[in-house]
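--- STAGE predict ---
source: upstream dedup step, 1 unique chain passed
mode: sequence only
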Amino acid sequence: MKFVIVLACLLAVAYANEEANVIKNDAEVNVDSFHYALELDNSIKAVQQGQLKDKDNWIVSGEYEYVSKDGKHIKVSYTADEFGYHPKVEN
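--- STAGE serialize ---
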C-alpha cells in the first residue's frame, strides 16, 4: 500500500495550485500493476508505475517535477518497495 501514499503525495503537490489546467492525464490500473502520468500547464509533471511483487508487496517507481516558488526546477525520482521509499532529488 506504499504506492497509495506516494500517489496521494504526488496528487497533493499537483493540485496545490488550483489555477493549473490538465494537459495530460493517463491512467491504467490492473489487479497486479498500474501506471499513470499527469502533466499540468504550470510545469508540474508526475509519472508513476507499480507492479505487484508478491501477495503483500509492490515495487513502485516514478518521478515528479515542478518549479519551486523561488523559480528552481525540482525533479524527484523514486522507488518504493518493502524496504521503504527511496527518493533522488535533482535541482
